[in-house]
């Protein structure tokens, strides 16, 4: 907030403009969002009002693209389907994430952190390979069907599982569950355990405790996770392409094909606008419906009060732990499958398994261009992580300290990259690069991926700052400014775990990222691109070997990074001790 | 403990500021190439590409450097590089990236084009005319491929040097089906839910064109399109899945389909390798001829040197091995797996004519590419 | 007052009934090869204000939480009247706990917090409204009923936590150092309120604290714990006057411990000889210690006097004095016995280094077995 200070200087009242609080830290964020997101998107969306030309944009202004979008029944149905699938996926994801978060925070004790790590790590394995692994699990001769038939439940394979909307839903739930779980867990771990004990002590059973004590304190995180998942899912075009089959078309594919295949930017832009509008409208409806039904349920519960009869002996089973364990198994299973299939002597990517061999590992390393692509991917991941930290951490501080209008601006800047579907960001950057002559490549991709990763880092770090900031301000008031400086030196070790978490998330986002990079990579190749290109000639089990290697490298880096971080923490602690 | 009068808050911001400005500076340094890239324009190349610019022979033989190549990963082999001239591959993931990724000037020097993509490339005027007399070894190529009008524009200028080729075919599991002889065979009840089709309008429409006996796999009249769409409707119950490229191998390996209509290239070989029992025949077949083309602004001596090497015997053999496509040099055929070898290319080409690409615009004689894309999208959406 | 149901009658302090109400037998807690609670046997009477007192780590909070049902015991039984408490889940026990950090529900108002337990019992809405209003009135928080709990001061939050538990009319109220986070004035005031409340309601309170003064001010009986064991169980007076062992003597109040040897015994009186040869009379317990054994004589500062008399038993040098308002406590250095603390009048504090005489009042000291 721009405030006006009026110091008396020899009887003359001078007015000084004071910079908004938190301005400095927010500058890089605002710069990034403006140049990489706002301007390209604005330009791209403006194309929706222009006429199409072969791989270009015409000069006349017209609503033709919108007309095409709105009048074509296929498009309408496609968008509706995409929005509905996205909402269904988001609903399932949020439900599972809640259970997972609850179990990790309250039920698993000291194992909770380790399991959260497992959940996050499961998001590291190559995006595409995880999808392939799911095909092997869900396919007609995949594990699920083989088991069902062996056990005798069905005679025929259940086809619906392998291609189509069920497969898309399952795969998307799998892909987006870790992040949602992280968001909700971060929020839930702020709830004092004592409240659950108090609830039990006061007579609240497990369900009442969850519904009345835990859930109301997590509504914001749940809503954010829901919205985020729905938006990302609605514009995902890789998943439907790989597991959707002919029936599982979603709008992201159409946007991608409009822009990349036909160069019809106006149509792509119009579709993009329509998608955003559709998804937001659906989200709004769903959230409103949720709120209404919650208050209706509340009122109904209040009105309906059966008198207390005999207290039946209830079976004391903890539901959350087994369900959460099943979810974690669900997350880990494809990784196990990938490892197992990487040893397949048979040439196929998945089943049938013929035998075990390690020969794919050296064989695949020999494949032309693989190492370079992997190197590019890793390089990009590290740079994205650094950029996300460099921009996200100051932004987090700014978010905490900003007031008034500037605070609102910052929030829009932080959330915008998450709200706009990756497809659109990529398409916008592609057209922006073509227009301005900036070469597409790792540089542009880095900017785009940093853009995508910064909100995660900023929000995670901000949450952490808020949880320590209270103690800081109190002690700061008591002890004076010198000690405040000392406390700031202590703050950083407290922040390091969240920095590490944010960095990890940024790296995993970058490593797997293909939605945006399809558009922005230009002449460079990353691992997912290599895989998709190679896939034209039928993949070998080597692709599983690649995923295993990527996973191994990620895990090792994670362990090393954590070790370094904890050493830094203890160093800082001993430093702080001498103050 | 001395009291520090400077408010710690401002100190902190300064520290932050220095820290991240340093990082941003570093980022800029690393991202330098991004910023350095400059160039104009959006679409068509600046120089006219119709006129032939033949490089000097001496220049070609002494050319050195690294070229930027846009192509399929399975063509990447060290044999394509020589000590003097090499190419850095950028991978295509879809055919349409041929156009979008070459849009920026000087984004690439060479591109793996194909005969079906030529009409659009010509429309965009994006390929440099090549002088075959300046490419050593060009005459040694298989004549039907070397002289094919599919790689030339309407004035006969050469726009791409043949690189490798393959044709589409139908394959099936003999235990569950037999080789089809006509479209009605596909409607047999034993094939209900057993047929796979590749998700590619460039595959299915030429297939139907050939099955229906149309003259060219690329020229479909509006009436013929209507007929094809009704055929697709009839095929609906027979289709198990419309799948991405390469997936048919896994589908056969898992026993999920009995017949694949639009297999091409090494699918049958790979499927057998994966343990499936499959046979194939020419049915609805057409040939895809991949070629190397040069983009405007590329260094011609180095490009020609690379082209020459790409059609040399060692390179052709290596390409055949990595991609399992057919080489364009007859003497390299020894590198092709036994099951895929053909005897007489004339015979093959009569069964599988070389694709020349769909027309870009609709006309009474033939529908344009856009119409076909939409027809395919409509069909998929209606499943 | 209206928090009560008609069944419970208020009891005066002195008439805490003799029938055991809460019986703990052999309650043990082992954790990672450590004995957190050695087998505890305890009887608590209905209507009494009972305190578990001890230093941190002694096991008092663990024991409290076992009674509440928030922790499990390794062995033992607990009976509340006829009810087997350990077999009942915490939601069903007629026992409620006031948490040290209050554990209020931050997303609910004061009234909603207080009403929570009654909602859990599925009480009719009318009844809930009435009881909550009465309870808030009792603690003076009626005007804060619709406020967010996060806006309240520490003292107000503590009252909400207390009310939330009491409104359920538990048979047993447990309090886990509820006043620890408050400043001195507030603490004293709330101590007084708690005492009055307990007397009015007649509910049995079990209070946990490490503050000996607090325990003395509030309790009918105290169990002093150390290292998982009850070191002494008794009224505040008993614990102060007749400490069971050295730990108790030193934990409660100031204490001087002099090595001595028992000369004579007669009932609860005895004569001992100090190391310097001085003969002193003191009180002792019936059983121990026996004649001619060495023992410890525990003397409170008020059992000692400074004297100018030459016949003083002990010669000492004056040291630091600690001003206490009404009087002062003077450290004196006695050659054979070390540093003792003596009560002196505030205006009679001798300067440091002055030679002084120390007189031991007869039959005031208490004899402990030497251990």
Describe this structure in words.
The complex is a heterotrimer of chains A (579), B (383) and C (371). Chain A is mainly α. Chain A has 22 helices and six strands. Chain A has a two-stranded antiparallel ribbon. Chain A has a two-stranded antiparallel sheet with strand order 2-3. In chain A, strands 5-6 form a two-stranded antiparallel ribbon. In chain A, a hairpin with a 2-residue loop joins strand 2 and strand 3. The longest helix of chain A has 39 residues, at 265-303. Chain A is globular and about 70 Å long. The two termini of chain A are 35 Å apart. Chain B has helices spanning 8-30, 32-36, 57-62, 97-100, 118-124, 143-146, 201-211, 222-235, 247-253, 267-273, 300-310, 313-323, 345-351, 369-381; strands at 65-71, 85-91, 110-114, 161-172, 195-198, 239-243, 259-264, 279-281, 287-294, 326-327. Chain B has two domains: 2-9 and 166-286 and 357-381, Periplasmic binding protein-like II (D-Maltodextrin-Binding Protein, domain 2); 26-165 and 288-346, 3-Layer(aba) Sandwich (D-Maltodextrin-Binding Protein, domain 2), CATH 3.40.190.10. In chain B, strands 1, 2, 3, 4, 5, 6, 7, 8, 9 and 10 form a ten-stranded mixed beta sheet that branches. Residues 1-48 of chain B have low confidence and may be disordered. Chain C has 371 residues and is of the alpha+beta class. In chain C, 23% of the residues lie in helices and 36% in strands. Chain C is built from eight helices and 20 strands. Chain C has a six-stranded mixed beta sheet, with helices on both faces. A five-stranded mixed beta barrel of chain C has the order 11-12-13-20-14.
């Amino acid at each position: 907030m721009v405030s006006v200070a009026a110091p008396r200087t020899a009887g003359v009242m001078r007015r000084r403009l004071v910079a908004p609080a938190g301005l400095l830290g927010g500058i890089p964020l605002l710069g990034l969002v403006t140049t990489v997101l706002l301007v390209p998107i604005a330009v791209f969306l403006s194309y929706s009002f222009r006429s199409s030309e072969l791989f270009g944009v015409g000069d006349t202004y017209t609503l033709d693209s919108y007309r095409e979008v709105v009048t074509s029944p296929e498009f309408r149905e496609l968008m509706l389907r995409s929005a509905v699938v996205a909402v269904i996926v988001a609903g399932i994801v949020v439900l599972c994430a809640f259970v997972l978060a609850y179990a990790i925070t309250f039920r698993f004790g000291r194992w909770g952190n380790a399991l959260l790590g497992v959940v996050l790590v499961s998001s590291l394995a190559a995006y595409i390979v995880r999808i392939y692994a799911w095909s092997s699990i869900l396919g007609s001769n995949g594990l699920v069907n083989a088991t069902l038939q062996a056990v005798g439940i069905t005679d025929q394979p259940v086809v619906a599982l392998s291609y189509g909307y069920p497969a898309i839903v399952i795969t998307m739930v799998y892909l987006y569950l870790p992040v949602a779980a992280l968001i909700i867990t971060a929020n839930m771990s702020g709830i004092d355990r004592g409240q659950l004990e108090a609830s039990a002590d006061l007579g609240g059973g497990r369900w009442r405790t969850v519904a009345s004590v835990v859930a109301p304190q997590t509504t914001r995180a749940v809503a954010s996770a829901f919205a985020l998942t729905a938006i990302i899912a609605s514009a995902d075009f890789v998943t439907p392409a790989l597991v959707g089959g002919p029936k599982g078309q979603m709008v992201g594919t159409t946007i991608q094909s409009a822009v990349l295949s036909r160069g019809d930017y106006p149509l792509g832009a119009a579709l993009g606008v329509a998608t955003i509008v559709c998804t937001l409208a659906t989200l709004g409806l769903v959230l409103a419906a949720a709120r209404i039904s919650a208050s209706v349920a509340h009122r109904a519960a209040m009105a309906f009060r059966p008198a207390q009869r005999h207290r039946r002996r209830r079976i004391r089973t903890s539901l959350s732990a087994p369900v959460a364990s099943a979810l974690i198994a669900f997350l880990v299973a494809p990784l196990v499958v990938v490892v197992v299939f990487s040893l397949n002597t048979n040439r196929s990517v998945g089943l049938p398994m013929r035998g075990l061999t390690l020969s794919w590992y050296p064989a695949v390393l020999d494949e032309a261009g693989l190492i370079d692509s992997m190197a590019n991917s890793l390089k990009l991941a590290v740079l994205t992580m650094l950029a996300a930290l460099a921009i996200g951490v100051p932004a987090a501080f700014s978010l905490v300290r900003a007031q008034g209008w500037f605070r609102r601006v910052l929030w829009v800047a932080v959330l915008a990259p998450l709200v706009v579907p990756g497809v659109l960001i990529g398409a916008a950057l592609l057209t922006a690069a073509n227009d301005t002559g900036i070469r597409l490549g790792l540089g542009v991709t880095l900017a785009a991926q940093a853009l995508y990763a910064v909100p995660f880092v900023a929000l995670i770090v901000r949450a952490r700052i808020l949880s320590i900031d209270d103690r800081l301000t109190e002690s700061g008031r008591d002890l004076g400014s010198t000690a405040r400086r000392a406390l700031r030196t202590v703050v950083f070790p407290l922040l390091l775990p969240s920095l590490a978490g944010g960095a990890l998330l940024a790296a995993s986002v970058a490593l797997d990222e293909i939605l945006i990079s399809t558009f922005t990579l230009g002449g460079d190749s990353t691992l997912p691109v290599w895989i998709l290109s190679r896939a034209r000639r039928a993949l070998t089990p080597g692709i599983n070997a690649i995923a295993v290697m990527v996973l191994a490298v990620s895990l090792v880096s994670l362990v090393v990074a954590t070790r370094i971080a904890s050493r830094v923490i203890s160093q800082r602690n001993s430093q702080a001790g001498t103050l | 403990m001395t009291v520090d009068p400077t408010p710690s808050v401002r100190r902190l911001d300064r520290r932050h500021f220095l820290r991240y400005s340093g990082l941003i500076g570093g980022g800029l340094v690393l991202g330098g190439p991004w910023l350095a890239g400059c160039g104009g324009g959006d679409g068509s190349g600046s120089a006219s590409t119709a006129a032939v610019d033949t490089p000097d022979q001496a220049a070609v033989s002494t050319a050195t450097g690294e070229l930027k190549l846009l192509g399929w990963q399975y063509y990447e082999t060290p044999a394509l590089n020589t000590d003097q001239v090499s190419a850095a591959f950028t991978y295509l993931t879809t055919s349409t990236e041929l156009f979008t990724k070459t849009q920026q000037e000087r984004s690439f020097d060479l591109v793996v084009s194909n005969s079906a993509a030529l009409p659009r490339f010509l429309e965009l005027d994006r390929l440099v005319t090549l002088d075959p007399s300046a490419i050593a070894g060009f005459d040694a190529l298989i004549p039907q491929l070397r002289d094919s009008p599919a790689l030339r524009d309407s004035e006969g200028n050469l726009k791409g040097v043949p690189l490798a080729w393959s044709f589409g075919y139908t394959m099936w599991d003999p235990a569950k089906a037999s080789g089809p002889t006509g479209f009605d065979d596909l409607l047999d009840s034993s094939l209900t839910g057993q047929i796979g089709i590749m998700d590619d309008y460039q595959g299915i429409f030429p297939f139907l064109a050939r099955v229906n006996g149309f003259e060219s796999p690329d020229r479909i009249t509006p009436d013929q399109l209507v007929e094809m769409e009704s055929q697709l409707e009839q095929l609906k119950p027979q289709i198990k899945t419309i799948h991405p490229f390469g997936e048919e191998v896994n589908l056969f390996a898992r026993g999920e389909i009995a017949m694949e209509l639009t297999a091409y290239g090494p699918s049958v070989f790979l499927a057998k390798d994966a343990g499936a029992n499959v046979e194939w025949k020419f049915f609805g077949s057409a040939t895809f001829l991949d070629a190397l083309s040069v983009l405007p602004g590329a260094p011609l001596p180095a490009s020609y040197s690379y082209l020459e090497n790409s059609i040399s015997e060692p390179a052709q053999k290596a390409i055949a091995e990595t991609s399992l496509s057919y080489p364009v040099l007859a003497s390299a055929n020894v590198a092709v797996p036994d099951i895929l070898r053909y005897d007489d290319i004339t015979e093959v080409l009569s069964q599988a004519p070389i694709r020349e690409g769909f027309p870009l615009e609709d006309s009474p004689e033939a529908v344009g590419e856009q119409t076909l894309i939409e027809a395919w999208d409509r069909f998929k959406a209606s499943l | 007052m209206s928090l009560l149901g008609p069944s419970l009658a208020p009891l005066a302090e002195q008439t805490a009934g003799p029938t055991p109400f809460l019986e703990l037998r052999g309650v043990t807690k082992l954790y990672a090869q450590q004995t957190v609670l050695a087998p505890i046997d305890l009887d608590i009477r209905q209507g009494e204000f009972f305190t578990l007192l001890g230093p941190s780590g002694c096991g008092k909070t663990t024991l409290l939480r076992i009674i509440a049902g928030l922790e499990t015991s390794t062995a033992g039984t607990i009976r509340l009247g006829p009810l087997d408490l350990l077999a009942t889940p915490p939601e069903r026990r007629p026992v409620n706990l006031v948490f040290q950090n209050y554990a209020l529900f931050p997303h609910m108002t004061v009234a909603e917090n207080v009403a929570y337990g009654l909602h859990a019992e599925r009480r009719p809405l009318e009844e809930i409204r009435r009881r909550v209003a009465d309870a808030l009135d009792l603690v003076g928080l009626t005007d804060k009923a619709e406020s967010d709990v996060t806006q309240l001061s520490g003292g107000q939050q503590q009252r909400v936590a207390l009310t939330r538990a009491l409104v359920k009319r538990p048979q047993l109220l447990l309090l886990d150092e509820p006043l620890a986070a408050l400043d001195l004035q507030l603490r004293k005031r709330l101590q007084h309120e708690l005492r009055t409340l307990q007397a009015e309601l007649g509910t049995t309170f079990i209070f946990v604290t490490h503050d000996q003064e607090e325990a003395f001010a509030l309790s009918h009986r105290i169990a002093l714990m150390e290292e998982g064991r009850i070191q002494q169980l008794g009224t505040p007076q008993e614990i102060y006057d007749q400490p069971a062992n050295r730990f108790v003597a030193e934990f409660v109040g100031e204490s001087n411990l002099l090595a001595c040897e028992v000369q004579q015994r007669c009932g609860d009186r005895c004569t001992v000889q100090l190391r310097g040869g001085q003969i002193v009379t003191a009180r002792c317990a019936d059983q121990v210690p026996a004649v001619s054994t060495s023992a410890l004589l525990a003397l409170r500062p008020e059992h000692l006097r400074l004297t100018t008399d030459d016949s003083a038993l002990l010669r000492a040098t004056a040291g630091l004095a600690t001003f206490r308002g009404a009087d002062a406590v003077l450290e004196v250095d006695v050659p054979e016995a070390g540093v003792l603390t003596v009560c002196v009048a505030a205006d009679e504090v001798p300067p440091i280094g002055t030679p002084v005489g120390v007189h031991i009042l007869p039959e005031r000291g208490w004899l402990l077995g030497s251990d």
